[in-house]
Amino acid sequence: MLTDTHCHLAATEFAVDRDAVLAAAKGVGVASIVVPAVDLASFAAVRDCCARYPGCVPAYGIHPLYLQHAGQADLDCLREWLARAADAAQPVVAVGEIGLDFHMGEADIERQEYFFVEQLKIARDADLPVLLHVRRAVDQVLRNLRRIRVRGGIAHAFNGSRQQAEAFIGLGFKLGFGGAATYRGSKRIRELAASLPLDAVVLETDAPDMPPAWLAGGRNTPAELARINELLAELRGIDASQLARATSTNALAVLPQLLSAD
């Protein structure tokens, strides 16, 4: 059994063949898929996608690169959305995808940090874990997590140092590894994926983004998780089935609402 802890299955890139994409993923052993939103406009699509496909569970949040038109009303809506889902006994696995992204420079640092901090508060109040986007901003994300304690979560697409990895683990987080680790040139990511404690690692695709090396930049899908799992198991020197079991157990430990994915 495999668990894809980060897959944008509700994205328009899957509009024409989503049924086939899910069937292919199930066919290679992907049993559970976490589907995060990126902005308020995507909430309904994520909800409907997860309602349609067994094994899929939603996360709701505002991504740092989707803040162009976001305002206080979006934060209020996120809080209300989580409350309505809880009242309706609808499983919400996490608040996400949220975080910071300084890849394109730090011009929006204050705006990004404001929305990140406010969403951490929402997650804390709802007692939900978070799915973190941390590109070029690991230390800043950690600083905010130390100030506003949440119920752990996952540092998605982790690409930091071992010291930073240990800091996340100490705060109750798992570290997500996927397509980036399949490139021979990604030496730091591969070393961490191979040597971090097994109970700290979870798998992800970030589909349709972050394609593994063998797709040559093409569209990623959750079915690729099986081959990603095999490659990372080889890096760790363990059997692929052992890694699949361990990473699925880790995902459930940090995202307990995955139990509702049936």
From TrEMBL:
It holds the Pfam family TatD_DNase. Keywords: Hydrolase, Metal-binding. InterPro entries: DNase_TatD-rel_CS, Metal_Hydrolase, TatD-like. It comes from the Bacteria. GO terms for molecular function: hydrolase activity, acting on ester bonds; metal ion binding. Gene3D superfamilies: Metal-dependent hydrolases (3.20.20.140). A divalent metal cation 2 binds at residues 133, 156. A divalent metal cation 1 binds at residues 6, 8, 97, 206. Belongs to the metallo-dependent hydrolases superfamily. TatD-type hydrolase family. This is TatD family hydrolase. The lineage of its organism: Bacteria, Pseudomonadati, Pseudomonadota, Betaproteobacteria, Candidatus Accumulibacter.
